[in-house]
Amino acid sequence: MHKTVLGVAATVAMTVSSVASAATVSIACGSVGQEFEVCKQGAETWAKQNGHTIRMVSVPADANEQLTFFQQLLSANSADLDVVRIDVIWTGMLAQHLVDLKPHVPDDELGKFFKPLVANNTVEGKLVALPWFTDAGILYYRKDLLEKYKQQVPTTWQELATVAKTVTDGERKAGNAKIQGFVFQAKAAESLTCNALEWIDSFGGGTIVDETGKVTVNNPKAVEALTFFSSLIGNVAPKGVLNYSEEESRGVFQSGQAVFMRNWPYAWALANAKDSPVKDKVGVAALPKGGAEGKHTGTLGGWQLSVSKYSKNQEAAIALTKYLTSAEEQKRRALVASFNPTRPDLYQDAEVLKTNPFFASLQTTFTQAVARPSKATRGKYSKMSSEFRNSVHATLSGRGSAADNLKSLEGKLNRLSGKGKW
Ligand code: GLC
Question: Among 66, 87, 185, 263, which residue has the most ligand 1 atoms within 8 Å of its CB, making it the best to mutate?
């Protein structure tokens, strides 16, 4: 009898203690392509193993709208977000609201991530986020169509325009009326900032604002780049690109209606999915150079996981962040959704490379990707980026020449920054 009572008491105590430590952890991950689903699977696997529950927080697909949403919640010290997925350009802007993860990640473990990403996520000595996946803009092309018309993969943007024209002319003659030459992201959103930085830098026109904060965007190479890309609209590229983000361009390319697409690596797994009309017909290359003297430029993108300072479940949130950025989980994500790992070791993994051969063939695209000037422009990055993309969007839409629009953009950015002081 005595023994039974003790036994019951012990069971009750155990149940109470596990209930007390069980948490409902909310996580805001992305929603582009398969991101939401793949994040949910990872988070729920962790929750199940550890007796916790996950609450998925929906966020807008557009990166800039997401930033506004997070800024509102975090500025209100809201406990509604525990784990927050943040863009590579936001670490400085959101640092004040994020937990320092340094005391929770041993140095040898931190050393297993790409160093530049750890440096990017370290703000005033605090590790405000762990790198989750990295990316850069790449060129997708239709292997079958290039072969059919005996065309090479273009190495300059000018060649891309010529090849696209040859293939689309041939296809249209053969009755394929819907085929487009090149799709990319020219909606006035953060994705256009990424695309246009690639164009300008590939022509040798720099990075909008340089590392010292000087506004450099108004230069002859940038004018040449934007004039060239404006000439593609309604010609090599459908007018619709002016309203395309990542998913709209992927929709067109994946349904077989474009020869070329600029996008991030996530589109690889989807383009090769079982039900994809272009499965096994797609090749991937570095984005073309802006002429023979230009360079291959991909804009650095990517996402980090951070923990809100206002979270009431910090311990569990930190554990979830560590799990999701672990080698095991990053490998799973690379295999199912072609998310580029943030750990160099995984680029030596045979399975990962077999599923994503471009992780190896485009190594320099990823390691030498060009960063947006978020460090130099600090808290004013968003405003700078929106002035930049609006100016580019106007030029692409035929509202003003590249030369006039860049001159006026230069004035606006100089005023915004206080003559480059930011
Ligand atoms: C991708 C990139 C991110 C970028 C965004 C723009 O998600 O990883 O860095 O800001 O696209 O749409």
Answer: 87
